[in-house]
Amino acid sequence: MKSMDLLIGQVIRFDGDPFRDGPGAARHHGHGAVAVEGGRIVDVGEAALLRPRYPQARVHDHGQRLISAGFIDAHVHYPQTAIIASWGKRLIDWLNSYTFPEEMRFSDPAYAMEIANRYLDLVLARGTTTVCTYATIHPTSVDAIFTAARARGMRLFAGKTCMDRNAPEGLRDTARSAYDDSKALLRKWHGVDRLSYVITPRFSPTSTPEQLAALGALWREYPDCLMQTHLSEQTDEIAWVRDLFPQARDYLDTYESQGLLREGALYGHAIHLTERERARLIEAGASLIHCPTSNTFIGSGLFDMTLAQHLRVGLATDTGGGSNFSMLPTMAAAYEVAQLRGQSLHPAQLWWLATQGSARALHAEDRIGNLAPGMEADLVVIDLASTPAIEQATRRAEDLWQQLFPTIMMGDDRAIAEVWVNGHRRAP
Ligand code: GUN
Ligand code: ZN
Prior knowledge:
The protein is of the alpha/beta class. The chain has helices spanning 18-21, 47-53, 91-104, 109-124, 139-151, 175-189, 209-221, 235-244, 251-256, 275-284, 292-297, 327-340, 347-361, 388-393, 400-410; strands at residues 4-14, 26-37, 40-46, 58-69, 71-77, 128-134, 156-159, 161-162, 195-201, 226-231, 265-269, 287-290, 312-315, 379-382, 416-421, 424-427. The chain folds into two domains: 4-69 and 370-427, Urease, subunit C, domain 1 (Roll); 71-361, TIM Barrel (Alpha-Beta Barrel), CATH 3.20.20.140.
């Protein structure tokens, strides 16, 4: 017989989308419980109801701590783990000075494995149970992150980064090899355990139209895969794209014209969009991934959160362009970026973005990102008074949001009391 675990504490779950339905889309149980069996959530509700319903369950009583779906980081570059928080550059300089030299080191499979393990340990300790990551151009860097995720039972999305121009010798593939290597990796890993392959052209400046076309063709062969890339992050980058693709209507058109725009496309950043781009992204049902700490750190601009009313928006750290591995400061930065645009975000919206919103952006909302019967048991238990500064700020809290917001704004890995992956306790 399978053994059952019953986690007791405050519980947050979502019945709807707080961008459409308001904060009432979140459901809060002040004394709730989550029943977990065989890697799945089997029941969620009031502790007073669930305790007698499952008398044989192993009980984990977390008191006032908050039980939530694990965080989902929808856009990261795990190979940039060791260069996070590198000082003083804007995008193109930053790529050339820090990113490309570091990504070069992933030609060594042992180094790739070391960083993949280090990265997943860092994010699990911060309550992130799923990421969608770029690897490097080296196929072994994809093997490394999938192997590390599989060993931890994680649901994880990753793909080989493809670049056939404007990158240094040693970090370039070709249209042909990008297609062949991506296809071989996809066939090797896609659907194995909880792993999904993502077709990954880095961005238009580092791919020829021929490479984008080859990856568009691959995507037509494997339409249930996701495709990830970058779009309109900095104004210099957009001007560069204009020079490189003189025939394109705009940045999005460089993807669209090669079969790289439809449902299942994930565009990181998407800050400086034209009216045509916004309309086409909405019409096509694309996902946008907001990376607020990266956008302030690299100085890119302020994402327009009103887009979340029209299409799937996920939240992400963009490690290592982002300045943190944790989704808590990422939610804080999303709040601040929205403030600067006069778009105040409710804590329910922030929490939703870091869980269900990212799951929806990855088309995985039927499996992860929420607490409901049948969902995979990826959970985080949050200490809402993890530091003296946070504890004193919650003393007069009158509802969950007032209790939670100081942790969103000031919390870090100390707030992560427990993490469960696929029904097993993993960290810290
Ligand atoms: N655009 C293309 N590559 C990258 C990257 O690695 N990080 C960020 N922030 N933007 C990019
Ligand atoms: Zn990125």
